[in-house]
Fold:
Amino acid sequence: MLTIEQSDDPLVRAEDVQNLIDATEVLEVRLDEVHAGPLAKLGDTLVVDVKVDEPQIGRTDFDDRILIRFTHRVLCFAEATPELTTELTLSHVVALQMTKPITVRPAVVAAWVETNIYFLAYPYVRQSVTVLTASLGMPAVVLGYLSRDKRPITGGMASAE
Structure:
């Protein structure tokens, strides 16, 4: 069971995150929700803008399972006509099982999500964006590298409970 204690302490040590990694096991990463459209006429010079919502953490009916949800908003438009935009919204869920009980501070959970769980989910996000854009008849969009120095998550954690 994961217990998140009340604390405003922002200090996170690498061993705090490692303890959380050691207490969890990844069960699945899945595409949970998709919205796409309207399909705009896209020119030769495609502009792609990606925004990431704050991740959400939730629980299941099983005490030993947690879910972390990432939602990406991908805007695609021709450079010459930015007012004609196709928006894709994709939500992925990482399901984890707790292998042992652990109590952590919110800052540790946020660091774990930013430095581990998001990087685990990102290849699935890239694949979903490429497949979805190609399936819509758009140029297949391939998202670039995810730099650890420029990760899009701000460190907050919203609760989906």
